């Protein structure tokens, strides 16, 4: 009740001194806008970087000396290889939810195709790896499946055919799985062999990393003047794969011809290359290599659902004499944190200077209003009441300036986003918005603004409260 | 009942200490009307501010209806000013950015406890008081559109808002012409006679002090009382203590010449 009446006085005074307050609040508005703009920018960028580019909820574990085992003395310490036993050990580490072994295709492969998408066929070396299909459960668009169709353990009985038309819509007519053909003499150009024995085959389902599409759309396509691809138009894209072939010249004298189809995008896919169900890479590696290639994993993805466990799991992995691949996430997170801290400090300086300005304005106001303050004291205002009125004005000023600052930052943010959308050329991971606005950012911006205004008005309020009313009242 | 004992007040300006009141005693009975006279700078306003609880930086005691003003907390002293004292100043001291009605109702803003009036009640009382002082057509006017006499009547309405037991008036007619001043003093006499409000008026005008029951003179840091007016007070209020104490004071024949 009483505070409501004091508040009415605060409102009256705000209105009366609005010109002073408008000038005093400019600094606060700019400071709060700086704070809000750069913090929401930092959060938004962090979202893109840590959410899409370097997801933090999983680690990739690699053997210590996978690619260095070329020295004269090769000691098979066991940590060179991640095999099924090692995978089981990793799974035991507390904090680990699941582990997904990854197996690279160690045989050269070349892909041909692309006319339907880009207007011309492209022939390219195809780095590939294989992952457990369970890793991407629920990630694919309806109608697409990431599945080991040719798994000998549960493959359907083959249906003989002569032409693609004889097979189901999403199948083709080709040689049975793992059919080896003699290599062409020229070593170039894929020629499907005229094999009389053909069966209906599923395409090898292929996942591609978001990075590839981002890289393609962001930079590569413009260099080659190719059309922009959206993810949906890429899904279902089919191409030929010739395994055992390479630009470097066929290393094997036999080839396996397959067809593959893009079924989705996933951040679990290999960064540059294609990812297929692990069964395919396992069978191909064994076919062109040795029996124990069947359990030579090149890396293991370890899912750690609770972020705080990541460090502990990383430690456990090192105990097993394995390495955690550095994804760059930590450096990125640190960089963004530093960025946010720098701009937080810049805003603190601006708001701090503004608070000093507020202090001057309030000292002046208290001086100007000393007679009014005396009158209020004479009719019953206590020192505390006077202090509360002044601080109330400061708090209200802070709230209004805070709202204005946040509004300014929001406007600047949406301007920034729209300039980026309309005038900045595409680049990898170009987001639709660079900002994130969690509720606590609004709350802390307003608290920050109110806090500094109240702090600035503290000494003037104290002076006003301690002023002796008698002298001003009897002065003429 | 106001009882002042051994009150000393000094002002300090830098290193210079200037004692204005050298330990004064004063008793004022309820319902009395007293004028306070004396040369400029003698300490009349100083005394009034202390009595009204606007200044607590003095030595000695001031008791009003048994409460020692010195011992009250700032909040209680504020409540005392709010409910028991009405101040009237020479400079009117109205808030220029408020209407007359808001000025008169200002004490309601700072009232404490349950008897704080709601806004509509406060406004009704303000309108009633403005009507009483003859300003019923200026209720929503801004004070700076009023004449001096009108302003002082708004100030009187404000002083009356909380139905105080006493009004402390510091040269209330100092900025008014003789006729307007006389009307204001008439209002005080009416309030004293009809409502029984104790009235203390600081004045330089002998015609005004002549209209009060008692005249206290402040000079050289001491209070002096005119025997004649003291007798009048004694007769009216039968306050023996009062008369006995002040009988020793020198009669001041020069008072009429002020
Ligand atoms: N705030 C103050 N600081 C220092 N000295 C003061 C202060 N207020 C009053 N004085 C001094 O105290 C003395 C008494 O002042 P006071 O205002 O009580 O006089 P007064 O009798 O009311 O005079 P006047 O008739 O001119 O109003 C004066 O000498 C004055 O200069
Ligand atoms: Mg005076």
Layout of secondary structure:
The complex is a heterodimer of chains A (about 475) and B (about 260).
Chain A: H1 2-16, H2 18-53, E1 58-63, H3 84-92, E2 98-104, E3 109-113, H4 115-118, E4 122-125, E5 128-131, E6 171-174, E7 180-182, E8 199-202, E9 204-208, H5 210-224, H6 231-234, E10 238-243, E11 254-265, E12 274-277, H7 278-288, E13 299-303, H8 310-319, E14 322-324, H9 329-368, H10 370-378, H11 383-423, H12 439-466, H13 469-474
Parallel strand pairs in A: 5-12, 9-11
Antiparallel strand pairs in A: 1-13, 1-14, 2-5, 2-13, 3-4, 3-10, 6-8, 7-11, 10-11
Helix pairs in contact in A: 1-11, 2-9, 2-11, 2-12, 9-12, 11-12
Chain B: E1 2-13, E2 16-28, E3 33-37, H1 44-51, E4 59-64, E5 67-68, H2 74-84, E6 85-89, H3 100-104, H4 106-109, H5 119-132, H6 148-160, E7 166-170, H7 178-195, E8 198-202, H8 206-211, E9 214-219, E10 222-225, H9 227-237, H10 240-246
Parallel strand pairs in B: 3-8, 3-9, 6-7, 7-8
Antiparallel strand pairs in B: 1-2, 1-4, 4-5, 9-10
Helix pairs in contact in B: 5-6, 9-10
């Amino acid at each position: 009740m009483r505070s409501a009446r004091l508040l009415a006085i605060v409102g009256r005074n705000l209105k009366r001194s609005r010109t002073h307050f408008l000038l005093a609040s400019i600094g606060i508005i700019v400071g709060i806008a700086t704070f809000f703009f750069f913090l929401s920018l930092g959060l938004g960028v962090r979202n893109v970087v840590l959410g899409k580019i370097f997801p933090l909820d999983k680690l990739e574990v690699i053997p210590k000396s996978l690619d260095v085992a070329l020295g004269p003395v090769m000691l098979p310490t066991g940590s060179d290889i991640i095999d099924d036993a090692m995978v089981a050990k990793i799974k035991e580490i507390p904090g680990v939810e699941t582990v997904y072994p990854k197996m690279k295709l160690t045989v050269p492969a070349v892909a041909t195709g692309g006319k339907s998408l880009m207007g011309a066929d492209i022939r390219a070396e195809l780095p590939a790896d294989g992952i457990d299909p369970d890793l991407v459960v629920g990630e694919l668009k309806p109608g697409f499946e990431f599945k080991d169709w040719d798994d000998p353990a549960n493959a359907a009985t083959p249906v003989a055919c002569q032409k693609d038309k004889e097979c189901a819509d999403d199948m083709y007519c080709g040689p049975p799985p793992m059919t080896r053909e003699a290599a062409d003499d020229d070593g170039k150009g894929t020629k499907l062999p005229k094999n009389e024995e053909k069966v209906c085959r599923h395409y090898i389902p292929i996942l591609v990393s978001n990075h590839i599409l981002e890289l393609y759309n962001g930079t590569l396509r413009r260099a080659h003047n190719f059309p922009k691809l959206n993810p949906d138009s890429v899904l279902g894209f089919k191409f030929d794969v010739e395994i055992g072939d390479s630009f470097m010249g066929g290393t094997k004298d036999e080839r396996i011809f397959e067809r593959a189809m893009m079924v989705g995008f996933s951040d679990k896919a290999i960064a540059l290359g294609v990812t297929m169900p692990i069964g395919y890479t396992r069978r191909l590696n064994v076919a062109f290599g040795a029996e124990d290639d069947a359990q030579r994993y090149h890396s293991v993805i370890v899912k750690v659902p609770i972020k705080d466990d990541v460090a502990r799991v990383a430690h456990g992995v090192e105990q097993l004499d394995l390495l955690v691949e550095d994804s760059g996430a930590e450096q990125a997170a640190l960089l963004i944190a530093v960025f946010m801290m720098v701009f937080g400090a810049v805003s603190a300086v601006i708001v701090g200077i503004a608070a000093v300005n507020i202090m001057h304005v309030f000292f002046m106001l208290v001086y100007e209003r000393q007679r009014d303050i005396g009158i209020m004291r004479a009719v019953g205002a206590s020192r505390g009441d006077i202090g509360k009125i002044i601080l109330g004005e400061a708090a209200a000023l802070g709230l209004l300036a805070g709202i204005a600052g946040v509004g300014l930052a929001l406007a600047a943010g949406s301007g920034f986003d729209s300039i980026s959308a309309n005038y900045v050329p595409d680049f990898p991971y170009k987001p639709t918005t660079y900002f994130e606005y969690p509720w606590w950012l609004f709350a802390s911006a307003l608290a920050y603004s109110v806090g500094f205004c109240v702090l600035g008005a503290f000494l003037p309020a104290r002076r006003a409260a301690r002023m002796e009313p008698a002298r001003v009242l009897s002065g003429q | 009942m106001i009882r002042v004992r051994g009150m000393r007040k000094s002002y300090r300006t830098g290193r210079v200490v200037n004692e204005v009141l050298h330990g004064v005693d004063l008793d004022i009975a309820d319902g009395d009307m007293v004028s306070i006279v004396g040369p400029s700078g003698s300490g009349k306003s100083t005394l009034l501010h202390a009595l009204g609880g606007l200044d607590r930086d003095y030595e000695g005691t001031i008791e009003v209806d048994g409460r020692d003003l010195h011992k009250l907390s700032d909040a209680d002293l504020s409540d005392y000013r709010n409910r028991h004292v009405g101040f009237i100043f020479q400079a009117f001291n109205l808030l220029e950015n408020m209407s007359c009605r808001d000025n008169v109702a200002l004490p309601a803003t700072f009232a404490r406890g349950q008897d704080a009036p709601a806004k509509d009640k406060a406004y009704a009382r303000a309108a009633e008081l403005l009507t009483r002082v003859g300003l019923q057509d200026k209720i929503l006017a801004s004070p700076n559109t009023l004449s001096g006499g009108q302003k002082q009547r708004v100030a009187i309405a404000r002083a009356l808002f909380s139905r105080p037991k006493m009004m402390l008036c510091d040269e209330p007619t100092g900025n008014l012409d003789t006729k307007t001043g006389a009307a204001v003093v008439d209002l005080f006499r009416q309030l004293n006679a009809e409502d029984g409000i104790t009235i203390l008026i600081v004045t330089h005008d002998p015609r005004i002090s002549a209209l009060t029951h008692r005249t206290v003179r402040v000079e050289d840091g001491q209070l002096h009382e005119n025997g004649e007016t003291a007798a009048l007070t004694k007769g009216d209020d039968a306050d023996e203590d009062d008369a006995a104490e002040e009988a020793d004071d020198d009669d001041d024949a020069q008072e009429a010449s002020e």
